[in-house]
Amino acid sequence: MRILIVNPNTTSSMTATIADSAQRVANTGTEIEAVTSSMGPVSIEGYYDEAFAVPGLLIEIAKGEKAGAEAAIIACFDDTGLDAARALAQIPVIGICEAALASTAFIAQRFTIVTTMERSRLPLEHLVHRYGMGGRCKVRAADIPVLSLEDQTSNARDRLRSEIAVALRDDGAEAIVLGCAGMADLTAELRAEFGVPVVDGVAAAVKQAEALVALGLSTAKRGAYASPVSKTYKGLLESFEPRKLAAL
After folding, report:
1. Which of 76, 88, 118, 150 has the most CB atoms within 10 Å of its CB?
2. CB-based contacts of 9, cutoff 8 Å, min separation 6
3. Residue spans of the chain under pLDDT 70
């Protein structure tokens, strides 16, 4: 089984963290291919960054499917470009936020997502409601830039821990969901420290991708996720015409 994981930002060191998390939980027969978007922002923090991350993401989804990937994972907790990718691809496409929430719902009644910036908190609240978890899940921001998670000299990880402690105390959270793919390498450490389930969306998405492929299921191609209508695109987006993207 071959699973494509796309980091829709352009920071390759974060892709390495994501790939390591995926490899740790993948079945022996699962091949993980983790790729970094070739265009867009170095991190995704809010709606503006998200919009400009989608084109590069779609290119990698199209290339990966053509190369033989049987499922794809979008490794940004905003589930960046998820609907567009599902319309484009024939294979299952999984967002790590949706995967994390679905997995956590099996093991806890009340849980909290701890994410990075305040500007990312509101988009995640919208996703929580979209995925039907509004009555069970809260979202907190540790007020840390995404890339600071990779800087060992910053206090980002301490601030993340502090926000987790507040969630457990004030929210009555029974489990914690890490609201950024760049936090994936902290999962085991935080579980041991706080003594509660800590869920990484990358790992959750890998297991769900394996399940969908094993069940022979893919995205429905009628209605919302029907393949894009063939039409002309102009200007800088000319190469994103559906027929041209499919031919990559």
Report:
1. 76
2. 36, 37, 40, 41, 42, 43, 44, 49, 53, 76, 146
3. 151-153
